[in-house]
Design goal:
Elements lengths: L7 E11 L39 H13 L3 E2 L6 E4 L9 E4 L6 E2 L2 E2 L2 E10 L3 E4 L6 E4 L6 E7 L6 H17 L12 E10 L8 E6 L2 H20 L8 E5 L4 E4 L12 E2 L16 H5 L6 H10 L4 H9 L1 H11 L7 H25 L20 H12 L5 H14 L3 H7 L11 H11 L1 H8 L3 H14 L6 H12 L4
Parallel strand pairs: 12-13
Antiparallel strand pairs: 1-10, 1-11, 2-5, 3-4, 3-15, 5-7, 6-7, 7-10, 8-9, 11-12, 13-14
Helix pairs in contact: 2-3, 5-6, 6-7, 7-8, 7-9, 8-9, 8-10, 9-10, 12-14, 12-15, 13-14, 14-15
This protein binds manganese (II) ion.
Length: 493
């Protein structure tokens, strides 16, 4: 009778992000994720030589507190660092400096998901296992890099919601300049806890690690929901365990847990001072609020309020290139200007199309879902030139057809759109009237004169052109006008 009631997924996320700082969390070794030579950014402190003492990196503390402000969480007024003891070669000290009792941030919310806590800790070294599995080498460049850990409440109910949350967090970290948060580079690492409950009773949870892209994360969660549901529907029990995600096989697999995770024997680190944050002026909420940029959610709301479609607003907020162009174009226009929407539509359609063409030409391997900012094409047109096109279009100097052509043309070599339109006679008329419409109207008004012209009376054409010019108040290119007139009458060129 298992079909009588449905199993409901409950998902919680644990997300680690490497923070952008000059130096490591507790010493002056460089924090440089791009360093390719192993074991160069190390010193006696992060290598845990006896007698060395750690010093707290203030920038790292500030990053986490700013994240807390953005999440509308509670900022700690007292905090301390604890030793989380476990033994593993990637941990030189034999413990990780983390926060247990007093996280920097408690509560808060993002994308409708409640946050439990955000705390600060240090990263471990990176281990590289040889393909044969016979040896492991360790690079300590990453050991001691400041790491933020965010834990959500188990309130997420689908893979999509989990993915949306993680994407929004990545954006937030980038807007705050707190982390590059590239999942492919391990700068942001997501772990998901999934359980299937029934009739309000929570099920046994399974933890999935090794999720190095948003897509992998969503697929792993979907897979796990199906797997656990099938087990439960057979009347069997889900085993509590930690799994990895095999991207090739598209399935989760049980992983050996590195420690008997139970007891980390947390205790406050005796070498580090506790911090009374409420007594430190630079860490007050007020001081931190003064440093906040416009956040992704705020920017999205501003665009939507201006009439931009939700999906376009999302694209401008998450794609830095499109966002910059849009901001550059609308700068100086008054609020509610219809030009704003016009610009949004041309960016979302025409500019995005040009980008897609260039990206697929430059790299066909790349999965568009996993676009990495570093290998994506650059915006082909300057905000200044793009703004000119939108203004010409809005003043009806050029038609929408012409606008698209001028955009393509200007994107090729950066030429001034006004020059392009001028040189090619693409202006409709400065009066804003449409030349084609005026020509058609003039011909209708003077059928006799048209007949005269067709019978070979050249002066008749001059008369018609004069009438058009008058209607257009002279604001038309005579050469273009003559050509359009001859075309409309059906005369040979
Ligand atoms: Mn952690």
């Amino acid at each position: 009778m298992s079909c009588m009631s449905e199993y409901v997924p409950t998902i919680g996320l644990e997300i680690h992000a490497e923070l952008k700082t000059q130096t490591k969390m507790f010493c002056r070794s460089k924090n440089d994720a791009d360093e390719e030579r192993p074991n160069v950014n190390v010193c006696p402190v992060c290598m845990a030589h006896p007698g060395t003492l750690p010093v707290i990196n203030k920038d790292a503390v500030r990053h986490v507190l700013r994240v807390g402000v953005a999440l509308k969480g509670e900022l700690a007024d007292y905090t301390e660092f604890d030793r989380k003891n476990y033994f593993y070669p990637d941990l030189p000290k034999g413990y990780q400096l983390s926060q247990y009792e007093y996280p920097l941030v408690s509560k808060g919310e993002l994308n409708g998901v409640a946050i439990t806590r955000v705390h600060l800790e240090e990263d471990t070294a990176s281990s590289m296992h040889s393909e044969e599995g016979e040896s492991t080498t360790i690079d300590y460049n990453r050991a001691g890099v400041p790491l933020m850990e965010l834990v959500t409440e188990p309130v997420i109910t689908s893979a999509k919601q989990a993915g949306d949350f993680a994407r929004e967090l990545q954006l937030l970290l980038r807007y705050l300049d707190a982390s590059e948060a590239n999942m492919e580079k391990g700068e942001m690492r997501v772990e998901a806890n999934i359980s299937m409950g029934k009739d309000g009773v929570l099920g046994t949870k399974v933890e999935i690690k090794n999720l190095n892209s948003f897509r992998a994360m969503e697929r792993a969660i979907e897979y796990e929901i199906k797997r656990q549901t099938q087990i439960l529907e057979k009347g069997e029990k889900v085993v509590q365990e930690t799994c990895g995600w095999d991207d090739g096989k598209q399935k989760t697999f049980p992983q050996r847990v590195k420690e008997g995770s139970a007891d980390y024997r947390y205790f406050p680190d005796p070498d580090l001072p506790s911090l009374k944050l409420s007594e430190m002026p630079e860490y007050t909420r007020e001081a931190l609020e003064g440093t906040m940029p416009e956040l992704p959610a705020e920017r999205r709301a501003r665009y939507i309020k201006a009439g931009v479609k939700k999906e376009d607003a999302d694209a401008f907020v998450s794609d830095e290139r499109l966002g910059k162009l849009f901001e550059g174009v609308i700068e100086g226009w008054e609020e509610g200007s219809p030009k704003t929407l016009l610009a949004a539509n041309y960016i979302a359609n025409d500019v995005v199309n040009i980008l897609r063409l260039r990206e697929s030409a430059s790299d066909t391997r790349r999965d568009t879902e996993e676009r990495d900012s570093e290998d994506s094409a650059e915006i082909p047109i300057s905000a200044r030139n793009f703004k000119k096109i939108i203004e010409m279009l809005s003043e009806r100097k050029i038609s929408s057809r012409v606008a698209k052509d001028v955009l393509l043309e200007s994107a090729k070599d950066g030429a001034d759109p006004e020059e392009i339109a001028k040189q090619r006679g693409l202006f409709q008329a400065d009066s804003g009237a449409n030349i084609d419409a005026v020509v058609a109207e003039t011909l209708l008004k003077h059928p006799g004169v048209v007949e005269d012209f067709k019978k070979g009376k050249g002066a008749a054409l001059e008369y018609l052109l004069g009438q058009c010019m008058k209607a257009l108040r002279g604001a038309a290119d005579p050469v273009v006008l003559r050509e359009k007139m001859r075309e409309a009458i059906g005369a040979d060129k």
